[in-house]
Amino acid sequence: MPKEVRISPGPKPRIQIFRPLPICGMTKGARAIFQLVSTVNASFITYLRKTIFPDYNPAIGKNSSETVMSSPVLQRAPAAERNKAPILETLKTILPVPSNNEKLQILEIASGTGQHIAHFAQSLPQVEWQPSEVSSTSLRSIEQYIAFYNLKNVKPPLMIDIVKPTGEWPSPLNSPQSLDAILCTNMIHITPWTCTEGLFSSANYLLKPGGLLITYGPYSVNGVLTPESNVNFDAGLRQQNPLWGIRDVKDLEQLGAQQKLELHQRFDLPANNKILVFRKVLYIHWLRETMCTV
Ligand SMILES: C[S@@+](CC[C@H](N)C(=O)[O-])C[C@H]1O[C@@H](n2cnc3c(N)ncnc32)[C@H](O)[C@@H]1O
Fold first, then answer.
1. Looking at per-residue confidence, does 215 or 30 come out higher?
2. Residue 133 is assigned to a structural domain of this protein
3. Residue 268 located in a structural domain
4. Which residue, 68, 89, 108, sits at the end of a domain?
5. Domain total in the chain
6. CATH code for the domain in which residue 88 is found
7. Which of 96, 145, 190, 260 has its CA 20 to 30 A from that of 10?
């Protein structure tokens, strides 16, 4: 049972459809028809609410205490709902088995709504998850997901702006070589390149040797972006912000090489997205590689 959370219910999801008004002096027959329409209408509204807002709990607002099991504060991104299953299946093949019964330590950068981490944490109990976000609205949503699913293996989310150096991050996260993996989904193309630079340099600092930086999103390969839908998506992103845009795997590989992160695995996922797995190499290997390429 999810733990009860005492929160403000927020606005009730609004769905307005035909709602007949009672007319004074109705005949018996008219009243019966009115009641029938009202009942069907109410059931239909409940059905629509449940379909559009699956977390919506009709008990919200009924008690004066406003104790609820769910809340519209739980944000729901349709894309995250679609891609969470294939990402999870890929994570299962990527993540190492923890040693000595210790949990794997994984930081998620740009956790968004919290849908992903809530989904992954339930299926991967061998991991201790640390969500993070730069947006305070998202931080609240992540907290709600943790409470709603009573997730014991997810730490409270931290405010992290990925462009800031790790030295300025909240204290549980600024110790070097402390993480087994960093996960970052759908951030690289929707932020300026400086965010990607921040992601890779913090991964270099925070990952243990052999640790993984796992990124998910659309990418071009050797300058070629396919299919047409991704080309249009990229154009739309750049129109919104000229500093955004779908990145090339080669550019990420180059950035990785500067930060002791080698591209280790690449997976094709549905909807023309990919998962890239960078592995932190030992300093001595990195030095040898760097010397050989100079
Ligand atoms: C498209 S959303 C992806 C959210 C989630 N990872 C997902 O896949 O559904 C991009 C996220 O990047 C976050 N973001 C933008 N700039 C950031 C920054 N400088 N540091 C950390 N996160 C940032 C935004 O707040 C937003 O939640």
1. 215
2. yes
3. yes
4. 68
5. 2
6. 3.40.50.150
7. 190
**Average pLDDT, stretch 102-112?**
97
Q: Whose CA is nearest to atom 25 of ligand 1?
A: 135
- Asked if 40 and 61 sit in the same domain, the reply is yes
Q: What is the pLDDT of residue 52?
A: 44
Select from 294, 254, 243 the least CA-distant residue to 276: 254
9-29 pLDDT, tens digit per residue, is 333 333 333 344 444 455 666
Pocket of ligand 1 (CB under 6 A): 77, 80, 109-112, 116, 133-135, 138, 160-163, 185-187, 190-191, 195
What is d(CA 14, CA 42) in angstroms, rounded to the nearest whole number? 13
Reading the block at residue 8, the tokens are 């403000």
Between 55-59, 173-177, 257-261, 278-282, the lowest mean confidence (pLDDT) is in 55-59
Residue 98 DSSP label: P
pLDDT score, position 56:
39
Can you read off the two tokens belonging to residue 26?
């109705």
Return the pLDDT at 250. 98
Closest C-alpha residue for ligand 1 atom 13: 110
CA distance from start to end of the chain: 59
